[in-house]
Amino acid sequence: MSFVSVRNVQHLYGDRIVLERVNLEVERESFCTIVGLSGCGKSTFLRLLLSQERPTSGEILIDGKPIAPEPGPDRGVVYQRYSVFPHLTVTENLIFGSEVDRARFTGRLFGAARRRARDAVGDMLEAVGLEHAADTYPHQLSGGMQQRLAIAQALLREPKILLLDEPFGALDPGTRARMHELMLDLWKRTRMTIFMVTHDLKEGFRLGTRLLVFDKVRWDDQAPERYGATITYDLPIGGNEPVPEDIEARIGPSDGTPTAREITDADT
Amino acid sequence: MTRLVNKRPGRGHILFLGLLPFVLVTVVYLIASDARLSENPNDKLLPALSSFGDAIERMALRPDPRSGAYLWWSDTWASLVRLFIGLAIATGLGLIVGIALGLIPYLRAAFQPFVAVLSLIPPLAILPILFIVFGLGEVSKIVLIVFGIAPFMMRDIAIAVAAIPRELVIKAQTLGANSWQIATRLALPLSLPRLIAALRLSLGPAWLFLIASEAIAATDGLGYRIFLVRRYLAMDVILPYVAWITLLAFVMDVLLARAAVRAFRWTGEDGG
Ligand SMILES: Nc1ncnc2c1ncn2[C@@H]1O[C@H](COP(=O)(O)OP(=O)(O)OP(=O)(O)O)[C@@H](O)[C@H]1O
Ligand SMILES: [Mg+2]
Known about the structure:
The complex is a heterodimer of chains A (268) and B (272). With 268 residues, chain A is α/β, with parallel strands linked by helices.
């Protein structure tokens, strides 16, 4: 019995089929990286795993049981944008989870309880290298620091599954490399099951234990909305194998010409 | 040549340029007043500065011979009490209803159109109704202010709350927050800057509704006094009162702007 089972999932926005016939069995403690062309439905897939949306048809099981209908602490998330609460300092962001957990009505802890909560996040603060920024607001942090904060915040609730939607997409290469170290380190320590969307194929290979490629297998030029994307490649990754050429040709930038992805990125 | 849009005044220039229109208006007034008074010393339309001084002294520094009150201050107090109570109730309603509408789809479906229609009713048109229902006392004046600005605030806050990135609302849920905690720990603080902005924009209308209701039925208050002395063409009282009201409104606006900058350091903006 696998940990996460996705069975024949189809998802529509209006009349438009975004995902179809998605089937997946994922073991506990896997690190699945997800790649695919822009707009093919990677974020949609994460939203389904998060219960931010429900699949139009098909089912998703976690631990053999149907997925909870709402987002909850069992599944954490880190987005590329709006990844942390802008009105809370670093420490306040980190203790938010335990505050809402323990103070159901006020949502806040005071006095000794608050001090204990602050102390409890000290290790995590250090693990992500933010101990010197404990009392600053997110807008004062660099992009990399904000993402580290977001990851720390999600991990503190000890989710069984962590969903990452291009968490390092906006970071420069150096910062990104350090984030990879951190991510692998945290994953080894916590042994969560991770799903991470990326548009960087190398990143996908470097971090994952399994690479999922989303793509359309059928294409109708007259009506692109008729067919959705599905998982076209599902590769186990053992270490440093080269990026397969056919995937690289479809997804990755190799010859210097920008991919559709990079063009849309440059626009935003 | 530098483009006009790129030329920026220095600090001293900003102060000078800012004061310039005030000085110009004052000078124009003095010249016009002087011209009229030299023709007819009893002219009431544009009194000289000295008459303003007399009027202010009479109203603010000496007790009224009939009531024994210092009218300037008792009027100010009466008006500010009405204004503050009205603003406080409207702000509270705006916040509670706005967050509820912005956050809870069922409430939005049920009440958004209603609030939208409510905000289109011209408040002054229902003033007679308020007088009939609540009498001529304080309540009808406060209700007019509330009625005049609360629907706008509700809509504004609802829009601000609905514009909170979906990611943050989902994130709060993955950290274990329930609906109430999302409202109090996310929607409330994130919409507060917008609330202050809405409150600042509402100050003008609030004063308008206050003065209108005081003009029609009151026994004290700044609006009441202006409309009372209008019968005697007492421009020497009216103009200082208008200046005083303007000053009060200005100070409130500045204080709100300052408070916003201090309270919302997290936005990373320096106010406006
Ligand atoms: N809420 C929505 N309503 C309607 N259509 C949507 C919605 N969200 C996404 N879509 C559409 O569904 C398709 C898949 O979107 P999705 O965000 O999952 O793509 P993606 O693979 O994550 O792309 P990217 O790499 O650019 O992030 C897109 O064509 C998008 O326009
Ligand atoms: Mg996406």
